[in-house]
Specification:
By secondary structure, the protein is α/β, with parallel strands linked by helices. The chain has a single domain (5-9, 13-279), classed as TIM Barrel (Alpha-Beta Barrel). 41% of the residues lie in helices and 15% in strands. An eight-stranded parallel beta barrel has the order 1-2-3-4-5-6-7-8, surrounded by four helices. The longest helix is centred in the middle third of the chain and has 21 residues, at 91-111. The radius of gyration is 18 Å and the shape is globular.
Length: 280
């Protein structure tokens, strides 16, 4: 079983989007993880959705020209985790979040992308944790239904600062929400000092995978400091029958000191380590 590799278009924000796609093609990746991050990516929902079909077809053309495929569309509705979270307490905000999700699905279908990722939501002050959590599960279940109706798989990224900050809470949310899958990123757990062994059971629930170097206290770290055993991850992926994309996902931003890594070199290095491990 040959793995499919993708690279995130938001790994290289200082290049034009066409330049990024040229580079990803040059690096020999099959797929691209497309960031739809409001306020901080090449393609932003507020712009792309103004003329959704035209922009989606334009992206499809740019990818096709370079022999690339859309591996994932990653929606982030704001520059913070709370203001347009799917489980926001205000109904009008939840309606806005749903509208953005539906437009993302339409955009994905137009691009012939079969996977969409999003953030799960957060706990809100002023209400019980169970209320925030229950509303989150309900909203994510609705998103799963909408995506499934279009033949699209929906996965959440359990991240630092989210309603699912640990593998235990992530598994609880997955089990409580019909159809929900995981865009699995070990680094958000490793940053908190959680060992690989506690994260590993989540591989069975993953429909997409993000890979980069990390260690306790660092969400993104150069490979000499990395503590994630990607060779072990590959072994478990083979055992569980993982068949989806492995996305190399370095980012370049001030948050969590993620602008202190040589993204190009680290992308190449980790790509080759995982490819070699897969060959056995």
């Amino acid at each position: 079983m040959k793995p499919k590799f993708a690279c995130a278009d938001f790994t290289f924000p200082l290049l034009s989007h066409e330049g990024v796609l040229d580079l990803i093609s040059l690096l020999g990746f099959e797929g691209v993880d497309i960031g739809l991050f409001e306020g901080r990516s090449h393609l932003q929902p507020s712009q792309e959705f103004k003329d959704l079909r035209r922009h989606a077809r334009g992206l499809t053309h740019r990818l096709s020209e370079r022999g690339l495929l859309p591996a994932d569309l990653f929606l982030q509705t704001a520059t913070d985790f709370r203001s347009i979270a799917p489980n926001h307490p205000e109904a009008r905000v939840r309606t806005r979040a749903r509208d953005l999700f539906l437009q993302t699905l339409e955009y994905a279908a137009e691009c012939r992308c079969r996977h969409v990722s999003a953030l799960p939501g957060v706990y809100f002050p002023g209400e019980t944790k169970s209320r925030s959590w229950g509303r989150c599960s309900e909203e994510l279940a609705w998103r799963c239904e909408q995506a499934s109706s279009l033949g699209i798989t929906f996965g959440i990224e359990a991240h630092l600062g989210s309603i699912a900050p640990t593998p235990k809470e992530t598994l609880r949310l997955l089990k409580a929400t019909p159809g929900l899958t995981l865009t699995l990123d070990y680094t958000h757990f490793v940053r908190r000092g959680i060992p690989d062994a506690e994260i590993e059971p989540l591989i069975a629930h993953a429909s997409h995978f993000h890979a980069r170097g990390a260690c306790r206290g660092r969400l993104q770290a150069p490979f000499p400091s990395n503590t994630i055993d990607y060779r072990r991850i590959v072994k478990v992926m083979k055992q569980t029958g993982y068949r989806d994309y492995i996305g190399i996902e370095y980012v370049w931003m001030e948050w969590e000191r993620c602008n202190e890594v040589d993204n190009l070199s680290e992308t190449i290095r980790l790509r080759d380590i995982i490819r070699t491990a897969w060959k056995g």
